[in-house]
Amino acid sequence: MRKKENDERSNIDPNPATLQREIDRLNRELRAFVAVALRHGLRDYCETRHPILTAELDQTDTHSQRHAKQKYDRVLARITDVPGLCGCPGDTAERTYYRNAQDNVAYIEHTLKNKRFILGGIWVAPRYRGKGCAHNILRVLVEAADDADLGIELYHEPFGEEGLRAQELEAFYNRHGFAWHDSAPGGLVRLPRSPLDLYTRS
Asked: Which DSSP symbol is given to 101?
C-alpha cells in the first residue's frame, strides 16, 4: 500500500527542474499565441484575457520599432556617400537623389516598414545607364544595411522601355544577395549579411 502511495506522489510531484522547464515552455507558447493574435486584430481579446502580457508585448514592439528607425536613419546617412556621386535626401524623405558635377544621375525610393528598409527601386538617367551607377548605389546601401543589421525588402518594376526588363532586374538584384522570400510576397528580400552573387531563382 505504501509503495502505491509513493508511486502516486511521484506522478503528482515531478522533479522541480522538469516542472520549471514545462512552465517555461508553456509561457513561451502563450507569449507567441498572444503576439500572433495581436497581429491579427484580436487586441480586445488579448487585453481582456492577458492584459499584463499584452502590455509587455506592446512595450517590446515599441522599443523594437524605435530601434529599427534608428537603424534606418543610420542607413540613410550612409547612402548619400556613393563614389563619384553626391547624394541628398528628397523633400519627402522617401527618396535619395544622386548627381555628379553636371547632371542629376539617379534616385532611389525607400521607406521603413515592418522593421525593414523598403526599397522601391533605383532609377538611373538614360545617358548614365550601363555605367555602374545603380551597382555603386546598391552596393553602398547593402553595406550600410548590413552594418546596421537591417533587412531590405525590394519591390521594383521596370522603368519604361529603356530600362532593364523584369528578368534582368531580378538577376541584377540577385547578384547583390536579394532572393525570393515568404516574408515578402511579390518582392525580393536581402537579409543582413547575405552573401553576394549566391541567390538566384531556380
From this structure: S
